[in-house]
Design a protein that fits this description.
7% of the residues lie in helices and 37% in strands.
């Protein structure tokens, strides 16, 4: 192995270890659910006819999508009043359950919810929580994704964290593209952890190594547009950035700077605009923020605090703490290691909906944003 390859490999391993136990290699999994039968109408063996590779990515049988009948499951009931509109999931391997979910995105096309768990299963649900489709990541024995977003055409962009690449799926969860190349140089990827896709098609990712910490912007074909940030503790620098979110106007990005225990706001040109939070457990302090999302009007951000078992809300303009949700536990309204969150872009601002991933409890909260804020 060349010296350069050795340095990259060591940097990537160190970053994975520093990221914490939640990003370890995938746990041993039971046999995958059976693939759907071939259609009797055309006599074609669909499994045999399915592609075995896309964009150089080999597709074992479980990495080919399985369509589900939404009428086979009941819609998750909506609760009257209160912050929690729905609570669904639970530990398991069935289509409606999870094993430590870590990534979520809501489609701007139809409000469908996409979730990836630690076993590498990507599930798509309708807005009422009924499963529509599922597929497994092509490779799971080297680690599984921790970030995802859905663009305006319903395509899911997955940060395939340990495989230093981006995977792209259509609405039926067919893999349609993949790009990314291992390297410390700008334009390449190490441990790619978070992803957000702008309305103009720009793909923003957070990427890290032992002494590499950056946000990179790519076009949809994976060509570098710009890089923001570098490793360090000073304002404007990053340590283990794990998520990036573009504001509704497409003018600012919020970065979950997890090992500096803060959220940093940059212009899309890289100018530092604000720093939110600091290490601690008191209201307005943060401990390992693992995801961040902009409120529908672009004035506030919601933060998933992996280390404090809560979700906190901040005003961006002045950094003021607004409110929080959660607290350590397994009961209704409590959280264990929340990893991800996403707003529903199809909901009007006065009826905004926030999906929060309660990773340690293997479930998802569907929260009423205005009730949470007391509006």
């Amino acid at each position: 192995m060349s010296r350069t390859a050795t340095v990259v490999a060591v940097s990537l391993l160190a970053a994975a270890l520093a990221f914490g136990t939640g990003c370890d290699r995938a746990v041993a999994s039971p046999a995958p659910p059976p693939m759907p039968p071939a259609s009797p109408d055309d006599g074609v063996d669909e499994e045999a006819a399915a592609p075995t590779a896309v964009a150089g990515v080999e597709l074992p049988p479980e990495a080919r999508p399985r369509a589900l009948d939404p009428t086979a499951a009941e819609a998750v009931p909506v609760r009257a009043g209160g912050v929690v509109a729905r609570l669904f999931g639970g530990e398991g391997t069935s289509p409606a359950t999870f094993s430590y979910p870590r990534a979520v995105a809501v489609s701007p096309v139809d409000g469908s919810i996409h979730v990836i768990d630690k076993r590498g299963w990507l599930r798509r649900f309708d807005a009422s929580g009924r499963p529509l489709a599922m597929v497994r990541m092509p490779v799971v024995d080297q680690g599984t994704p921790t970030g995802m977003d859905v663009d305006g055409e319903g395509r899911a962009f997955v940060a395939d964290s340990h495989l230093h690449r981006v995977l792209v799926y259509d609405a039926a969860l067919n893999l349609i593209d993949a790009w990314g190349e291992l390297g410390r140089e700008d334009g390449r990827l190490l441990l790619v952890t978070g992803i957000d896709v702008g309305a103009d098609g720009t793909v923003w990712v957070t990427d890290q190594g032992a002494d590499v910490a950056r946000v990179q912007a790519f076009d949809r074909e994976g060509r570098l547009i710009r890089r923001i940030g570098r490793w360090g503790r000073a304002d404007g620098e990053l340590r283990n950035p794990v998520a990036v979110a573009l504001d509704p106007a497409g003018e600012r990005i919020a970065v979950a700077d997890s090992f500096n225990h803060r959220i940093q706001i940059f212009s899309t040109d890289g100018e530092l605009l604000a720093v939110l939070g600091r290490l601690g457990e008191a209201p307005g302090e943060l401990k390992y923020p693992y995801d961040v999302a902009w409120g529908p009007r672009g004035r506030r951000v919601a933060v998933a605090e992996f280390g404090n078992d809560r979700m906190s809300v901040f005003e961006v303009a002045d950094g003021r703490f607004v409110t929080s949700f959660g607290g350590t536990g397994t009961s209704d309204g409590q959280l264990l290691k929340p990893w991800a969150l996403a707003f529903d872009p199809t909901a009007p601002p006065d009826a905004a909906r926030l999906v929060l991933v309660d990773s340690g409890n293997h479930r998802l909260y569907d929260l009423r944003w205005s009730v949470l804020l007391g509006d």
